[in-house]
Amino acid sequence: MRFATAASVLALAMPATVNAQESSETANEGGIAQIVVTAQKRAENVQDVPIAISAFSADTLRERAVSDVAQISNSAPNVSLDAGTPFSGSSAVLSAFIRGIGANDFAMNIDPGVGIYLDGVYLARTVGANLDLPDVERIEVLKGPQGTLFGRNTIGGAISVVTRKPGDTPAFEGDITTGRYNRLDARGYADLPLSETLKSSITFSIKNRDGYQKRLPYQSATPFVTERPGSLPQTGYETASREGSQHEWTLRGKLLWEASPSLRVTLGGDYMKIDQSSMSSSVLAVTTGVGGPFAGLAQNNIPGTALDVVTGSSGFFFGGLYNFCIGATPTQIAARNAGALCGVRGTPVNPATNLSALAGVNVDGDPNNNRLPYDNRWVSTDKDVSYATGNSFSNMQVYGFTGTLDFDVSDTIALKSITGYRNLRWSSGLDLDNSPVALLEPSFSLSQNQFSQEVQLIGNALDEKLNFVLGGYYFRETGKMRDFVTFADGLLQIIGPNDLKTKNYAIFGQVDWRLSDLIGVTLGGRYTHEDKDFTGGQSDANGFNYKLFNCPVYGEPCQSILGFPVPGQPLRYYVAGVQKKKFSNFAPKVGIQLHPNEDVMVYGSWSRGYKTGGWTTRLSNPLPTAPDFDEEEAESFEAGIKSTLLDRRLQLNLAAFTTRYTGIQLNFQQGVSPTVQNAGTARIKGFEAEAIIAPADGLTINASLGYTDAYFTSVLAQAVVAPNPFQAGTMAGSQLPKAPKWKFNVTPRYRLDLGERGVIVLLADYTRTSSLWNDTERTYLLRRPGLDILNASITYRSPSDNWELTVGGTNLTNTRYIVTGQSQAFGAGLIYGTWSRPAEWYARVGVKF
């Protein structure tokens, strides 16, 4: 019924692909303001671009309290943006999906499926892609494959963030915001012209907010011991009393030199630092009682080993093995050949880091070495309370430089150059098990830098009936990532050094030809070539495989028998040497437009996009070769209508699409390891509608409706996940993750002019989203139900328009849902997730002069 109501609201018009806030001047005139975008590398009214685009102006973002990229998700149909991915622990990581295509990971070996661009510079990593937005002029969300003009890894779409350019006169805008959880934010933007031809601007932003999940000490009637801090390998050992906090600051600057009427040079730089606790985490289920292959019954084991190969379930997975070790007698341990598994944690390879044995500590008569079992007591009963004691930090430093040169070769041809460099340093650590037990504690570090150069030749001919863009692109990236993941109090201690290098070059072009007043056509294409080098070095500091097979020699002959591939490195899972891959792709686009009049455009298009492949890095067993995955591709057909009617009081746009999605790269949980593989083929079809209505002076209503049906048509045998008590599984016909079928948003805004007493602006923002799956295997407890989210604010502006006061609230219905999470039901022995933020109030004072 909710969606029937939503559809009736839009029945007047069908959709729009623009979501724009009118300026106050336009509202008084009774019309809807135009938004100029650069989706086709040239400035155009968004209504003239034959692409489904949601565009957001700076005023819209401010009034809707949007401060980072993820927060525009509710306002854009068929778009899912989440701050954070499974076990990243960082809200600076962006999980971006458009029309069912994207990526839900942060590892450096996995490329995003939605391209994020800052002032024309592509951001290669999902880490740091959830940008702060203190000085944004607009955000453009382009839907569907954008391979022709934007390139690889925009197979789902692109999000372009455009910051403000320096103004001609001195000016300042700033605001201070307070709110729940001791929130205190401040930001400011200043135009500082240095001469008639040299102008500058500077922006700052500071965000501080306490976490909404408290860490409390666990109260036990009996004493227990835990590992001392620093005894298990991690990136760092910082903890926090609250999780889900925000402590960051951003600084940006621009310098614009108008060297001549035909030459403009813009230099920009930005720096952001984050130093805060990790994202919150709650345990949704404990599954340590599920039978697994480790320490099985003797009759099921390979003789002399602790591995059950007969049933695969008479023993334990890692969480259950931990419980067995601490609670079993020496006789019981010996009966399952598990003496080595439950013995000293560590190996003779690095004896200084070894930890004491877990065997029988709870039944040896000594209460001083007892350990807490991992059982149902650790299922979180309060979303905002945790008993975790391990790592809790998310630290990032990122800076970048941009140089843009615009040169008018003639009245009809312009040359543009965009040079970009970015440097990223990130580390994160989190405790996912809601307990003092180190059952699942990952931490990571990433250092990455990238350089890109793009050249565009933009022009028109035939009295502006023919518009074209030709260009070349070069991209280089290097990075180092280090994974440290502790399972079951050190029974498995994964250490994963991974190095990646990428070089990419492309040539592209697009021609838009208005054949007549009625008909226009578009032809475009992009050829891309990419070289990737990868070196993996994942290993297990506890030598679990040696202990599982009771092989006491950490070297030959045990190393070869167990399949460890690198001589002299008995614990290394990953093969030695540099892995290499080459990718080449041609992404074409063909379109046609009909213009029955100047206010209506009907368009259709066919396009292709692709995302490069790579290597799976998260191994928990040695392999003789480096496991890799191939590129994925999408072929999409789209048809739409864009219209501006009733003397600019009504803007109605509609887009319908169907996409064939092949070679899909998705994360699958294999034991404890989330691995990437090409899952199969999917069909994605749907439509989106957006409308802007200005029925009366001062009143504007933005509304949108999106529908996506994204499902597998075939799944490769190795990627099929059978239904089980915890999961619906992955198979032909199952729904893709992060793809709700329906999303409806309505945002009424009323501007009340009080004359000499100022202006009051009332704003409500309501979003209804149908259920979605957060993971590929469709874990029931991670499933996000249908949601109703309501935000609202009231703003008073002074008569001089020099200051304003806003009071508002986000998530006023206190709707809580799982943002991200992971099933370790058949690994560590738990299912965990991050709950969304609760209801929050805020008050903001802004000034400008």
From TrEMBL:
Give the main localization category: membrane
Q: Which domain of life is it from?
A: Bacteria
Cell compartments where the protein resides: Cell outer membrane
- InterPro entries tied to this protein: Beta-barrel_TonB, Beta-barrel_TonB_sf, Plug_dom, TonB-dep_rcpt-like
Tell me one GO biological process term: iron ion transport
Q: How does it sit in the membrane?
A: Multi-pass membrane protein
Q: Where is the signal peptide?
A: 1-20
A GO cellular component annotated for this chain's UniProt record is: cell outer membrane
Which Pfam families does this chain map to? Answer: Plug, TonB_dep_Rec_b-barrel
**Which residues lie within the region annotated Disordered?**
223-244
Domain spans labelled TonB-dependent receptor-like beta-barrel = 355-812
List the coiled-coil residues. none
Domain TonB-dependent receptor plug: where? 46-158
Task: Write out the entry's keywords from A to Z.
Answer: Cell outer membrane, Ion transport, Iron, Iron transport, Membrane, Receptor, Signal, TonB box, Transmembrane, Transmembrane beta strand, Transport
Task: Tell me which family the UniProt entry assigns to this protein.
Answer: Belongs to the TonB-dependent receptor family.
Protein's UniProt name:
Outer membrane receptor protein involved in Fe transport
Task: Give the classification, highest ranks.
Answer: Bacteria, Pseudomonadati, Pseudomonadota, Alphaproteobacteria, Sphingomonadales
